[in-house]
Structure formats: structure tokens, C-alpha cells
Inverse folding.
């Protein structure tokens, strides 16, 4: 490369570097997915990966990943940088924590950070997060009474020192898990992800003759901030409020949001939200913030890459002790249950400002179904296991298109495949199909939920940890659209439905049925295109009875 090119930092060349950085971080994320052991990581993509400048500002994130990991990672790197001064870092060091209030909201997510050294100085960081399937405690469910019931909490520490993993720490993690081999593999996949990110980042810097990331980082952050503020300026200024009623655990809950839109930013406040639960559905503010900001960014400046600049104009707060700003040491294992509903909560505010831009409510919360062997199975020498299949409901209809069926929004986590689940756990899944009529009727139909039916495959009982939403309160439509169908859990021969939260024992011979919720419709059902309705009926997505709603007969 000529000296002229090596010093060319024109906007055009900086844009080329930015695009290369996005490719680098995506390769980093794919390294984690391909090296991981647990299905929830390698099949479902429950991860994040990012590149940061020397000041810990996020410059790029992998497209693959969940908002709950990506946006919390942006703050978690700052926590780790404060805990470990840069001048004490060495090449090959990797730092980590799973502290819910510093990392990603519950213990099962490990967050790693690795410094990148060039010419003897730290020029940036790579970071990543993924979900570990089991860290001891009561198991990954909502039954803990505090954080100490929920597993092994690891404060900020050095996981790898100059290329050598901390053997004692890894031994402790193995000793506190029902799936030590899977955890071990996933941790090494996280390490490989960091190392791949550093190697590719340094290679890119060499290619473009960069001694540091200061100019490129400032260009990325300033450009993104400016574009985001321009997008916010298109939203009418004002104060908008919304309330969602949720199933809750011991009792029903209310989530409140007040969205304040100004030309210089957007602020969300959760004042009025119900207090914390005694069970593990509480949400640390970092996780609630991650999904709240993600929802706003889906509508406002959606084409602007996610980084410190595009995140900066959005702020979130809530009273300490409300269920969306849970304080230590309350249990938070299933924080996604309500955390993933915050997009519907805040989009209900934004709809008042931009009624033609915001989709209807969706299933939102994943039908995340952690399972493990019953306690006596281990005592009797039977097959021990811990696995976390993920299933999804329908998304809300969009202002100009139907909702998506059996699709994860806002989490982005892919649904677990039948064959993979059966290969790692002693269960048989007899049915997995879309639920007709579960999408809310509208000019645009809500996405459909699905039905999953399963039994034990080896004659032994197993435990399912339930923490799902929208069994009582379905996803609502917008602009005249109808609500989606609520979810439902039951045994085939049971006399009544099973509550959506708690520890469920499935005996040999029990036939367990899960119905995931559908998304709400958008617009008047009478305005649905007749050809679209006819196709829905032909495909079995809408029954003859369901079609009566569109025709005004019901």
C-alpha cells in the first residue's frame, strides 16, 4: 500500500473501513456459533459479539445475536474496563463475568472481553456473550427466592491470563453444572470468539495502515449519532404513555412506560410499573433497557448500524424495586419473560406518535422451556441431562404486511429443531405445527403461533421450568385489528390448563401440549384483500369459522 493510501482517511475510505469492521465482527460471531456445544448457541444463535475502541465504545456488533446480549454488552465492557485498568492488561488476557447487573441480566449468560494490542498498546477490545445451559442452583427456572438459589455467580475476573485459561475457575464451573462438558465447550467457544475478533481486527488495521482506531471510531460514532438524531427529529415531540397488563406469577402485573420525545433524544421511564415478584421473573434495568432501546431503534433510524453513537440518544430509567429495575439480590433467572415484552410496551407509546409505522403486539416472550432430569433419575443411575429448547409465537401484523408466524421478535433466537432436541434429551416431540386462527384478524393478519406436543422417550420423568407470558392477556391488535390467540399449556388427558410459570413434573406417559400465542392484527379485518384471505384458508392458516371474522359474520 502506498504512503498516500495509508494516510487517506477521507469519508469514502473511512466508510470502506467501517464496512470491513462489520464483516470482521460478523465473522467473530460465526466463530462462536460454529464452535459452541449447546444447541441454544449453535442452533438458536443466543449470542452477541462486538468490537470496541480503546475507550470501550462499541463500534460494531454482529448481525447474529439477541438485543438482550448486544445492548447489555455495550455497557458491560465499560464495567470490566473500570474493574481492570488498561495498564495492567497483557496480550492474551481475557476477562469475564456473569453478574446479572453487570452483564446480561441473569447468571446463565457469560460475557467476555479481550484487549487487542498493537505495537505494545491497547487499541481496542473484542467482546462476546452466550448462554450456558446450566450453572447449578435449582435449575434455570423461576423458582429461586434470591440470586443465590439460581446458580454460580462469578464476579469480574480474569478467565485467561496471557493465553492460559484459569484452570481453577474452569474446575469450579464444571463442578457446579449438570452439563459440565457442554459448559466447557461453550466457554472455549467464547474464548475462540474473542481471539478471532482480535486477530481479524489487527489484520484489518495492518491492511489499512491504522495505528489506532481513534479516527475511524469517531467517524463511526459521530456519523451514527448524527443520523439517529435526524431520525428522531422526524418523530413528533411530546410525552406518550402506555400500560400493558401481564400474567405475572403470584399475581397479575402492570408494566407502565412514559416515552418523552425531544429533538435531542428519547427517554423512557417505567414509573408506575408493578413491584418485584418473589419469583425469578424480575428484570435488571440493563436488560429492560436493552430491549426497550432495540424496539425504538426498529422504528427510528432502523437503517443505522448499532453502536455507541446510535445508542446514545436513547435513555431508560425506572424506580428502583419495580419489576423492570430489580435490585440485588432478587431472583432474575427468567428475566426474559417480561424483559422481552418491553418492546410492545414502548411501541405502544410510539404508536401514538407514528400510528402508521408501528406493528401490532406480538407473542414477544419466547416459549423458552428449560428441561432437566427429575432428581430421582440421578440417584437411580438414569440419564442425566439439561437442555433448553426455544419455541416462538407469532409477531404482530405490520402496517403494510402480515405478521410472521412462529418467529422470535424481539429476541431473534431461532426456534429449536425437533431432531436436535431429541438427540440431546430423552424426549419425543410428536407434533410441531402452526395453529390455525391464532393470528389476530386484520387488514394484515397477525403471525401464527404453533403447537408442540411431547412425551418422555425413555420411561423416566423429567422437569420443565415454565416461565411464559400471554396465556391470560393476548397480543393486542392496532388500528382495528383483532388480538391474537393466547397461549396454552396442558396435558392431553388433563382436566384443566397448566399455569404459565412454575416447576412442572412430566411423568412417563404424560402427553404435554404447548400452544404458543399468536400476534395481533393490524387494521380493519373487513379490509383484508380477498385473495390473501382465500390463500390463508387454502393453506389452513384461517379456518372457515375464522374467516367469518373477516366477513363481518362474527
Amino acid at each position: 500500500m502506498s504512503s498516500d493510501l495509508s494516510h487517506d482517511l477521507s469519508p469514502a475510505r473511512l466508510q470502506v473501513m467501517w464496512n470491513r469492521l462489520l464483516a470482521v465482527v460478523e465473522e467473530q460471531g460465526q466463530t462462536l456459533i460454529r464452535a459452541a456445544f449447546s444447541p441454544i448457541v449453535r442452533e438458536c444463535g443466543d449470542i452477541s459479539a462486538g468490537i470496541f475502541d480503546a475507550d470501550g465504545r462499541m463500534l460494531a456488533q454482529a448481525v447474529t445475536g439477541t438485543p438482550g446480549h448486544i445492548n447489555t454488552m455495550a455497557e458491560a465492557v465499560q464495567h470490566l474496563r473500570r474493574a481492570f485498568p488498561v495498564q495492567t492488561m497483557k496480550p492474551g488476557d481475557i476477562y469475564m463475568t456473569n453478574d446479572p447487573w453487570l452483564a446480561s441480566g441473569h447468571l446463565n449468560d457469560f460475557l467476555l472481553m479481550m484487549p487487542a494490542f498493537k505495537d505494545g498498546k491497547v487499541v481496542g477490545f473484542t467482546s462476546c456473550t452466550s448462554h450456558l445451559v446450566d450453572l447449578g442452583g435449582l435449575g434455570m427456572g423461576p423458582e429461586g427466592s434470591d440470586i443465590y438459589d439460581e446458580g454460580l455467580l462469578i464476579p469480574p475476573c480474569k478467565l485467561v491470563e496471557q493465553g492460559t485459561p484459569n484452570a481453577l475457575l474452569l474446575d469450579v464451573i464444571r463442578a457446579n453444572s449438570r452439563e459440565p462438558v457442554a459448559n466447557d465447550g461453550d466457554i472455549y467457544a467464547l474464548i475462540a470468539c474473542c481471539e478471532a475478533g482480535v486477530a481479524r481486527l489487527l489484520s484489518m488495521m495492518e491492511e489499512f495502515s491504522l495505528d489506532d482506531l481513534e479516527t475511524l471510531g469517531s467517524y463511526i460514532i459521530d456519523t451514527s449519532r448524527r443520523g439517529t438524531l435526524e431520525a428522531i427529529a422526524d418523530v413528533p415531540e411530546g410525552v406518550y404513555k402506555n400500560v400493558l397488563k401481564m400474567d405475572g406469577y403470584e399475581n397479575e402485573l402492570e408494566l407502565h412506560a412514559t416515552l418523552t420525545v425531544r429533538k435531542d433524544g428519547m427517554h423512557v421511564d417505567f414509573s408506575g410499573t408493578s413491584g418485584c415478584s418473589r419469583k425469578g421473573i424480575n428484570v435488571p434495568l440493563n436488560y429492560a433497557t436493552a430491549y426497550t432501546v432495540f424496539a425504538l431503534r426498529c422504528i427510528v433510524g432502523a437503517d443505522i448500524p448499532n453502536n455507541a453513537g446510535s445508542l446514545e440518544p436513547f435513555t431508560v430509567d425506572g424506580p428502583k424495586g419495580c419489576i423492570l429495575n430489580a435490585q440485588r439480590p432478587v431472583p432474575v433467572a427468567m428475566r426474559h419473560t417480561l424483559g422481552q415484552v418491553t418492546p410492545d410496551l414502548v411501541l405502544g407509546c410510539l404508536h401514538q406518535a407514528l400510528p402508521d409505522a408501528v406493528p401490532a403486539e406480538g407473542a414477544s416472550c419466547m416459549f423458552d422451556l428449560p428441561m432437566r432430569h427429575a432428581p430421582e433419575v440421578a440417584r437411580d443411575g438414569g440419564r442425566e441431562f439439561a437442555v433448553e429448547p426455544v419455541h416462538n409465537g407469532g409477531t404482530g401484523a405490520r402496517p403494510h404486511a402480515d405478521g410472521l408466524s412462529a418467529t422470535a421478535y424481539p429476541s431473534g433466537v431461532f426456534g429449536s429443531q425437533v431432531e436436535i432436541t431429541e438427540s440431546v434429551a430423552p424426549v419425543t416431540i410428536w407434533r410441531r405445527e402452526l395453529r390455525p386462527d391464532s393470528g389476530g384478524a386484520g387488514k394484515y393478519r397477525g403471525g401464527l403461533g404453533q403447537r408442540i406436543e411431547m412425551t418422555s422417550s425413555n420411561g423416566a420423568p423429567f422437569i420443565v421450568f415454565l416461565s411464559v407470558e400471554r396465556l391470560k392477556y393476548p397480543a393486542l391488535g392496532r388500528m382495528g385489528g383483532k388480538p391474537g390467540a393466547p397461549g396454552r399449556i396442558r396435558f392431553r388427558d388433563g382436566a384443566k390448563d397448566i399455569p404459565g410459570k412454575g416447576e412442572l413434573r412430566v411423568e412417563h406417559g404424560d402427553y404435554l401440549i404447548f400452544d404458543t400465542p399468536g400476534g395481533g392484527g393490524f387494521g380493519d379485518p373487513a379490509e383484508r384483500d380477498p385473495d390473501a384471505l382465500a390463500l390463508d384458508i387454502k393453506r389452513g392458516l384461517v379456518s372457515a369459522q375464522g374467516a367469518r371474522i373477516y366477513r363481518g359474520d362474527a
